[in-house]
Amino acid sequence: MLFLQLLFSVLLLNTPEVSSSPQFRSSIVGGHDATEGQWPWMAKIFVKKADNFRDFTVCGGSLISAQWVLTAAHCFDGTSDEDKSRVLLGKISVNDKQHKMIKIQKVIKHEMYNDYSSGNDIALVMLSEKQSSNAVIRPVDLSRGNEDFSNNGECWITGWGLREGNKPLPEILQQAEVPVLTADQCKIAWDSMPAHTLCAGNTTRGACEGDSGGPLVCKVNDRWVQAGIVSYGPKDCKHPLKPTVFTQVSSFLHWINNHTNMPDFH
Length: 266
Known about the structure:
This protein has 266 residues and is mostly beta strands. The chain has helices at residues 2-14, 183-189, 253-260, and strands at residues 28-29, 32-33, 42-48, 56-63, 68-71, 81-89, 100-109, 123-127, 141-142, 154-159, 174-177, 197-200, 206-207, 215-220, 223-232, 244-248.
């Protein structure tokens, strides 16, 4: 147990951001440093993938209630050891003292998920204990599906992953404002997309290599709502970028409610 605790301390500082998706290994390209408490729902998920202390997958996620984190199902592709997996909350930089590393009680992947390319790329992570809201840890509201994010909305992605070029891993959470595209614009970039997805980003800003499962959040009437979950994107971070494809959260509100007993928005 002590070895595992020490390992997670090392992971906080040095783990390369590697997602489980063969096509999309996400991080923030064209982003900049976030500030403490700016994105208090942001979660970093360490998924134990095999019988090896050093074999972990790292994904993003979002706290959506006192005990539930929303992420991508593909983060848990293959064999994962939930007992040795962890969720990090309240983390902005390597020097933060207010973060919490929490055990995972269970993981629920969407029943219709096969792989990221076929859609339903959504999963729920139940934390081992309920969290109290504070300045750096607080749930995000979920999109109700009646918002038009492509109409000049303010939307952001966040993550700790690799950046463009040979830049080192960021010590501070990265953020980037990205445009949400219309369905027709998405089809120009991607020949086909799974049902219940949306895309966001442009040729210079988007997700690229550790943020799979991370949130796309948009400002609606002075409050932030989560519109999407990072699912997949281009194979590399070279310019010009293709937009990132996100699971559309509003399409899965009933599913989320059925498993978490959170209020149903419809």
